[in-house]
Each structure stands twice: as C-alpha cells, then as structure tokens.
Amino acid sequence: MSDNQINELNDIFTKLSTNDTIINKNDTIINKNNNILNKNDNILNTSELNNTLDNNTTVDSSIITKFKDIIDINDYIKKSISDKIKSDSSLSSLINPIYLLSKSDNKLGQGDFIKLGNALEKILNIFITKFSPNIINIKKPNIKHEKEKDHLYIDHNKKIIFYAEVKSNLEMDTEKIPATINKVKQISEDQKKDYPEYTIKWFLVAARYYSSSIIPSSILKKYTSISSNLVGINEYFTELNIDEKFSNEDEYKIFINYLTKKMFKLV
Questions:
Q1: Are residues 149 and 231 both part of a single domain?
Q2: Which domain holds residue 42?
Q3: How far apart are the first and last CA of the chain?
Q4: 147 touches 189 (CB < 8 A)
Q5: Distance of alpha carbon 67 from alpha carbon 81, whole angstroms
C-alpha cells in the first residue's frame, strides 16, 4: 500500500471518528433534552398534585364538603398553632410537602402531629354524631386515673354500644402495642358490664388509612390478636351506618391537608 493510500485511509478514519463524536454529542443533547422533558413532566405532576391536595382546582365531593363545614367552625382548630419542631410522624406522609415548610423553613413536627391526631379524633366524632343515624355520643369528660376513651356511642334502637380508639400511628414502640391492645380489650369488657343488655362493638381505628385494604401487612401482623377489630376510616363509617365514604387515598389526603392548613394557619 502506497503512502498516499495510507494517508487517504487515515483521513477517512479521522472523519468517521469526528462524525461519531458529533453523533454521540447529539445523543447526549437528546438525552439531556429528554431528561429536561421528564423533569418538566415531574414538575407538572407535582404541581397538579399540590393543586389537587390544596383543592384549588377541583370541585369538592360530598364528604369533603361536609368535613370542611365542620372544620371551619371548630374551636379546637381555630385555636391551634404550629410548634414547628423538626421531626416526622405518621400523618406527615399524607400532607402536601408545601405545608411541611413554613416561611422560616421549619417543618411541622412531632408536637404538631400530636395536635393533628387529636383534632382528627374530634372532627371524626362531630362528623359521626352528625351523619350516623340514631347514634348518640355518650363519652363523658376524662376522669383522672381512668383510661381515656376516644369515641363512645350508643344506638338505643339497635341496642349497640360503639367504642373506638382512633390512632394516627400504629407503628408504636414494641412495648406500647400490647398496652394499646389490652386497653381496648379492657374498656370493651367494661362496657359489657355497664350495658349488659347491649351488643358491644369496638374498634382500633387506623386513622392513617382511609381503608383497611391499604394497611400494610407489616402493621397488620403486629395486631393479629385483634385483627377483626382493626379498621380503616371507611370501614369504621360502615360499622356506624354512615353512607359517606372516601373514594380513594387522594380524597382522604384532601381532607387531611385541609385540616392541617386550617389548624396551623398555613397559606
């Protein structure tokens, strides 16, 4: 092969390499553009979710409207303010990330989520007594040294006592789980003594979950001894003959976020 032929081949290889580099660069640009598009899609999806949770762009369902009416006039909600402690709790997974940061970048914390759990128990109680037929709230004020009860109702027509503990976090410390189970069992037994002619229906309500169907197996296995009494919000409503139900977790999130927004005066 002559020197000229060798030089011609080298020129060809050089051009091919240059073209490959250009192609690779173009591929990189395309990939970057795709990534940008994907990021934009994610931003749009996040924005859509935030708008939905904040309920600025959707028409309220019947159950959301009813809960909002209760929340808007509740004194406990009106008087609540945020502690802004930097920690997490179970209900935080349902709360719009926008609400987890204040203007001073302080997260809603453990103290706030305890308040939120208390508020949820109170709002559910008002909703139940308002929309469950024939249900009467018979819970007495808490007495020192006696076990507190979250919900206690009577249906004289059907001769049923309904007792429930509403827990926003069932992932408790190991030693607290048996204590919780023993508490609900003991109080339900006490109701049998107080109302011997009535049927006692009692529940541990997993308030983090709108439905029993989405309670994780990791939690269920910790409560196997009372599995038939462990319920989500919808199942609790069913037992109390309430027709209204949350259609999915997104709708339940709207309720929880509205409650959070009102409690802690979030914009």
A1: yes
A2: 1-54
A3: 80
A4: no
A5: 20
